[in-house]
Amino acid sequence: MSVNGLKIIDILNKIADVIDENKFYLTELDAAIGDGDHGLNMSKGFAVVKEKLKEDTGSNIGDILKKTGMALVSNVGGASGPLYGTAFLKAAVVMNGKGEMDLFDFVMVLQAALDGIKMRGKAEPDDKTMIDAIEPALNVLKDGVEKRLPVKVTLKEAVDAAYRGVEHTKEITARKGRASYLGERSIGHQDPGATSSALILDTIYQAIAD
Ligand code: ADP
Ligand code: MG
Ligand code: MG
């Protein structure tokens, strides 16, 4: 099973819509342990992504992801803009020149994205960041590819792992970003960036499962 560039554009448009639908929720989560702008930052950035992809013919998935990354770097404020932007720019390198993407490509894309986020933000698992949603999802994807499980099953299990990661962020102390200023007072609160990452992965799964 693989998806072409037009489907990738369709998925990115859906991500933009889901982020927009959840912007107050994400902003509320950020208000509790940060500065209350995560939803607004992300919805603004993804609105520009939508705009930038309007004329794209979908022939080069690397180009699509590069446009996405550049739009996020320059239009999402705060910590999450450069982090998500870097994630998409690193993913773009993996897909450069390719018109189709299969599950194996997606594993490499998500690995590159995660490596980019870690390189840029210097956070590790359990620092209460987006990494706590992305890394468990990636591990499930790798396992599914290795065992040759069906794509939809693997994606669904990866999304479940991402949401479990989001739940786990409630139990831990923030060690990176604004929430780290609260120290142990951040315990009990869900990380907004992990939440937006899980929503993005869920949207990808749902678009593939349709
Ligand atoms: P800001 O905190 O600058 O206002 P946002 O509110 O848009 O930026 O994003 C906050 C989210 O960014 C956090 O919930 C966290 O998931 C993520 N984040 C912050 N710092 C880092 C980091 N160093 N590495 C990975 N993710 C981070
Ligand atoms: Mg914020
Ligand atoms: Mg901010």
TrEMBL record:
One of its GO terms (molecular function) is phosphoenolpyruvate-glycerone phosphotransferase activity. InterPro entries: DhaK_L_YcgS, DhaL_dom, DhaL_dom_sf, Dihydroxyacetone_Kinase. Keywords: Glycerol metabolism, Kinase, Transferase. It is an enzyme of class 2 (transferase). The keyword Transferase applies. Pathway: Polyol metabolism; glycerol degradation. SMART domains: Dak2. PANTHER family: TRIOKINASE/FMN CYCLASE, TRIOKINASE_FMN CYCLASE. Homodimer. The dihydroxyacetone kinase complex is composed of a homodimer of DhaM, a homodimer of DhaK and the subunit DhaL. NCBIfam families: dha_L_ycgS. This is phosphoenolpyruvate--glycerone phosphotransferase. It comes from Mobilisporobacter senegalensis.
